[in-house]
Amino acid sequence: MAAQRAQQISGHLNYPKGLLAGQVAIITGSGQGIGAEAARLFANEGASVVVQDIDAGKAQSVAKAINENGGRAIAIAGDMFDAKYIEELVKKAAEFGNGKIHIIVNNAGFTWDAVIHKMTDKQWDAILGIHSTAPFRLVRAAAPYFRVKDGEPRCIINISSTSGVNGNAGQTNYAMAKAGVTGFSKALAKEWGPQFGVRVNTIAFGFIQTRLTAAKEDGATITTPDGQKVALGIPQKQGDANKDAGYADIPLRRPGTATEAASSILAVASPLFSYVNGQTIMVTGGRNA
């Protein structure tokens, strides 16, 4: 298999049909932000993209834009807290991919912050549910499409955060969940790498400009499975403090863009990273390096 893979890579150095030509990718939380950008970039590189998001309208919009620009995409909207939906997502993705799935990007998620002595069980369970349990269920459901020996590349990319690597005050739930993602990736790389050649890596993002890092006063929210609205973002006073400091703790002196974050996902999914496995790749502009 190794010789076949090496020949496959060396024989397509120019990638005339794209880095991900012929591959089918599920990208969760791809109705907006980093996920939407990743969907667009994957499609530009020849992948058939399954756009997953809880917001059906946003998922359909991303898929429509990809298709109108010559790519291939389908929207399969639903709630990643719903185990039955995850099974259906995999089934429909495999049908879309003519019986194959090559890439999973576990990107869906949100934050629900509080200092630990004020954090509720609901906050704790929701954040671990979306960032840890949902990726586990998705990968488990997709196992029959990854535990194969057809010579085609397979990879899983789990999105984490510097909060899961270094911790962050007010985010014990998020830090716990994202730290768990690293262990999950490393264990899975050891399970599915030897026999099936599946690569599993984690990308830990630093300060990326998304709705999770925008001003909380902008009013972005997400609704939990039980109907509660959760405010997203960083309080403006704290955000202004970062601006006043000129992002002094980031060597590049600026936050990253969603496109830059998505580009790192594309890089890890691509054959250019064919020998990178079980790693946590920090995309932080140099923060905490």
Automatic annotation (TrEMBL):
Give the superkingdom in one word: Eukaryota
Q: Which reaction does it catalyse?
A: a (3R)-hydroxyacyl-[ACP] + NADP(+) = a 3-oxoacyl-[ACP] + NADPH + H(+)
Q: Could you say which EC number(s) this protein's record lists?
A: 1.1.1.100
PROSITE patterns for the chain: ADH_SHORT (PS00061)
The yes or no answer to whether the keyword Transmembrane helix is present is: no
Recorded hits in InterPro entries, A to Z, give: KR_dom, NAD(P)-bd_dom_sf, Sc_DH/Rdtase_CS, SDR, SDR_fam
Q: Which Pfam families match?
A: adh_short
Family assignment from sequence similarity: Belongs to the short-chain dehydrogenases/reductases (SDR) family.
Q: What is this protein called?
A: 3-oxoacyl-[acyl-carrier-protein] reductase
Source species = Gomphillus americanus
State the taxonomy lineage. Answer: Eukaryota, Fungi, Dikarya, Ascomycota, Pezizomycotina
